[in-house]
């Protein structure tokens, strides 16, 4: 993100604040705004007048996640490869960590199979144009995910902008041989768009693919299998096309784990997420990662499906003076693995007696980044730093077999890992986490423990714990020192046994658990981080807004309405608002009482709420898109004639249906063609009048 963008963010904050504060504060803020406005016509001047070191703040979007940059680190990838004697560079562009972890796996495999030196590179760490300087004979791999509406992850934006630009000459990359793998989800309109765009642009610039690009599809849960197949194709291309020698040496750990008898650490240090340890508050522009208690939590919905629930949670941030949030922001939550699973896994691998011993973990290749803290304990690793509840891949099983306590277990695991179809069937009928897999082997072998399984194996094969993102449902105007969330718990049924439910890790522990009796005290030490979002109210409170939500998609709108109610209370004009809200029945009509009191109180004649009930005996069966369609004329008029802003929040499938209905409404209002209407929508996105905050329906 550039300094200019950041300036605009500050500006918007001030403008929002200007709309909300009371009279004296109004004047003060408006003075700031007026001063800021003077810069609007000349943002370059702002940058020149700012602190000359300010550019440093914006150099690395991913700093907080990727670790601290050493001052003399090069942003030239070719120089970095020379310095690290790397033969292969594995670039990653990732938002929530999957593409990043696949890139690290590729890096490890390159060492294991070909004895090559890989450099696993965060795309935001390097000047994109230096990719053209990578010497001939090296291999470049790209593992990248797609977000928003076919957009790159934050850390890949600069690279994607460059590779799509005219700056890249027709044969600028002709000496580069590459392979590409995308992480995406077919439920989204722009399925795997980023990797497709990157592939097109690399090809246009003359780069030579050594194999077809792979496309992981999260919607069908096939990313892992597709990745493994693509990886095998990559390795054969490495042998046949690049002449690499395959040494396939079995498992080689990427880290060394030793006990440190001198170190002493308290719980806060042990449980702090890696991102909080590596982020340097001096140069990171990211919000702080902090530990806060959940002060309140109560159930706010009930469903016919008793495994579902929804909770309202309030995190207290009174003691966190540096923590600020804005209406529409997200909160990242670092989950804690269930205590029972942690203890059983520790026992299973023979670490229960030494679980609290301080360990020092070091990468065997000094250029490889660690994915867990370097000083830790086995307990901290299993409870906070590794996703021990993640599904186990077929590939992991193949490697795990080498450490099996008995020959029978070993051959059973090898058989399981060899056949894709039988493993898919096994997965469809079993919730396979590492612990469950180890327990499964015990069924045939009695209580044999897996004492030979090295901790390095678990660090290498279990994904690093990643935070889950929730929309904040409170407004800082009403609750400056509290952050509330609306958390839905909807366990995923096993494909082959729909009565077996897999609970989402974070949502179920946050909301009280559906099958686990969690220790309340754990809720007092949750790590969180505010993540800014562009899902923001219009600067002027008089602008009409259309909000469309389903389920917990209502969260940011609760905050929006609190803001606008405040504006109305202090006597400012508030534009008309309509909220379309999809729920099953009155039982999950979230925040109904609050909405009613706003409608009849500060937002009287300003707010219309249109529920759509999909399973209510008292109402016609309807989804939220049907209600938008029923009011198509009003929606079209508001958007076109009155310059309303529209917001859609909820599942991606719902957003797609709503988008279609809204575009039809605008088309009918204007008489435009569908192409013209879509062009108008894209303009609205640019001018921040069309906002979507959507997610795929996988459990968090
Ligand atoms: C808010 C959101 C938007 C997404 N948009 C798209 C999209 O437009 N196209 C697509 O193929 N996948 C989309 N996805 C799916 C992600 O690409 C997928 O979850 C991927 O595995 C994430 O990889 P990462 O963890 O490396 O970021 C989206 C996911 C989320 C949460």
Automatic annotation (TrEMBL):
Q: Keywords of this protein's UniProt record, alphabetized?
A: FAD, Flavoprotein, FMN, NADP, Oxidoreductase
Q: Give a Pfam family name.
A: NAD_binding_1
A Gene Ontology molecular-function term? NADPH-hemoprotein reductase activity
Q: Which SUPFAM superfamilies does the record associate with it?
A: Ferredoxin reductase-like, C-terminal NADP-linked domain, Flavoproteins, Riboflavin synthase domain-like
GO terms under cellular component: cytosol
Q: Which InterPro entries did the record assign?
A: CysJ-like_FAD-binding, FAD-bd_FR_type, Flavdoxin-like, Flavodoxin/NO_synth, Flavoprot_Pyr_Nucl_cyt_Rdtase, Flavoprotein-like_sf, FNR_nucleotide-bd, NADPH_Cyt_P450_Rdtase_alpha
Question: NADP among the record's keywords?
Answer: yes
Under the heading Gene3D superfamilies, the entry gives: 3.40.50.360, NADPH-cytochrome p450 Reductase, Chain A, domain 3, Nucleotide-binding domain of ferredoxin-NADP reductase (FNR) module, Translation factors
Q: Please report the stretch or stretches of sequence annotated as the Flavodoxin-like domain.
A: 88-235
**Domain FAD-binding FR-type: where?**
287-538
Q: Which cofactor does it need?
A: FAD; FMN
Protein name (Swiss-Prot/TrEMBL): NADPH--cytochrome P450 reductase
The upper taxonomy is:
Eukaryota, Fungi, Dikarya, Ascomycota, Pezizomycotina
């Amino acid at each position: 993100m550039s300094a200019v963008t950041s300036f605009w963010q500050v500006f918007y904050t001030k403008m929002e604040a200007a709309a909300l504060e009371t009279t004296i504060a109004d004047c003060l803020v408006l003075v700031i705004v007026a001063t800021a406005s003077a810069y609007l016509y000349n943002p370059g001047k702002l940058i020149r007048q700012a602190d000359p070191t300010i550019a440093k703040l914006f150099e690395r979007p991913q700093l907080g996640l990727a670790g601290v940059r050493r001052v003399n680190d090069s942003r030239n990838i070719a120089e970095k490869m020379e310095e690290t004697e790397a033969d292969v560079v594995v670039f990653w562009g990732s938002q929530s960590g999957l593409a990043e972890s696949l890139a690290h796996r590729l890096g490890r495999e390159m060492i294991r199979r070909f004895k090559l030196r890989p450099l696993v590179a965060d795309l935001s760490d390097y000047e994109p144009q230096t990719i053209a300087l990578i010497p001939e004979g090296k291999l470049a791999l790209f593992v990248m995910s797609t977000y928003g509406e076919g957009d790159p992850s934050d850390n890949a934006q600069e690279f994607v902008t460059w590779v799509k630009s005219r700056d890249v000459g027709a044969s600028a990359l002709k000496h580069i041989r590459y392979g590409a793998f995308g992480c995406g989800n077919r439920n989204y309109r722009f399925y795997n768009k980023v990797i497709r765009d990157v592939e097109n642009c690399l090809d246009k610039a003359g780069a030579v693919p050594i194999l077809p690009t792979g496309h992981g599809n999260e919607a069908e849960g096939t990313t892992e299998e597709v990745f493994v197949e693509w990886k095998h194709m990559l390795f054969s291309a490495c042998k046949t096309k690049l002449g690499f020698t395959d040494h396939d040496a079995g498992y080689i750990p990427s880290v060394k784990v030793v006990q440190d008898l001198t170190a002493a650490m308290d719980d806060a240090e042990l449980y702090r997420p890696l991102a909080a340890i590596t982020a340097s508050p001096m140069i990171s522009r990211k919000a702080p990662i902090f530990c806060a208690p959940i002060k309140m939590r109560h159930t706010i919905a009930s469903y016919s499906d008793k495994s579902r629930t929804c909770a309202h949670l309030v995190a207290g941030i009174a003691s966190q003076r540096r923590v600020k949030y804005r209406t529409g922001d997200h909160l990242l939550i670092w989950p804690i693995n269930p205590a029972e699973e942690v203890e059983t896994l520790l026992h299973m691998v023979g670490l229960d007696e030494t679980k609290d011993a301080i360990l020092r973990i070091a990468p065997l290749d000094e250029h490889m980044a660690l994915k867990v803290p370097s000083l830790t304990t086995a307990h901290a690793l299993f409870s906070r730093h590794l996703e021990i509840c993640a599904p186990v891949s077929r590939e992991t099983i193949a490697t795990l077999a080498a450490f099996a306590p008995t020959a029978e277990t070993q051959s059973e695991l090898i058989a399981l890992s060899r056949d894709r179809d039988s493993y898919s069937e096994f997965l469809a009928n079993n919730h396979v986490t590492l612990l469950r897999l180890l327990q499964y082997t015990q069924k045939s072998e009695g209580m044999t423990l897996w004492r030979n399984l090295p901790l390095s194996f678990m660090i290498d094969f279990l994904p690093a714990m990643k935070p889950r993102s929730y929309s904040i449902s409170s407004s800082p105007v009403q609750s400056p020192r509290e952050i509330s969330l609306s958390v839905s718990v909807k366990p995923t049924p096993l494909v082959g046994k729909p009565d077996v439910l897999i609970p989402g890790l974070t949502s179920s522990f946050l909301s009280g658990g559906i099958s686990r009796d969690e220790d309340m005290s754990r809720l007092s030490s949750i790590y969180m981080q505010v993540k800014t979002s562009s899902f923001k109210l219009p600067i002027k409170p008089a602008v009409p807004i259309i909000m469309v939500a389903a389920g917990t998609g209502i969260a940011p709108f609760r905050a929006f309405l609190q803001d606008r109610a405040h504006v109305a209370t202090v006597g400012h004009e508030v534009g008309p608002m309509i909220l379309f809200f999809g729920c099953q029945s009155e039982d999950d009509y979230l925040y109904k009482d609050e909405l009613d009191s706003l409608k009849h109180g500060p937002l009287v004649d300003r707010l219309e709420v249109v529920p759509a009930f999909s399973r209510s005996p008292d109402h016609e069966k309807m989804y939220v898109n049907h209600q938008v369609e029923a009011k198509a004329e009003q929606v079209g008029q508001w958007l076109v004639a009155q310059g309303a802003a529209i917001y859609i929040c909820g599942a991606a499938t719902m957003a797609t249906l709503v988008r279609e209905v809204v575009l039809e409404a605008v088309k009918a209002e204007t008489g435009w063609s569908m192409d013209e209407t879509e062009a108008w929508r894209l303009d609205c996105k640019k001018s921040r009048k069309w906002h979507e905050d959507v997610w795929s329906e996988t459990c968090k």
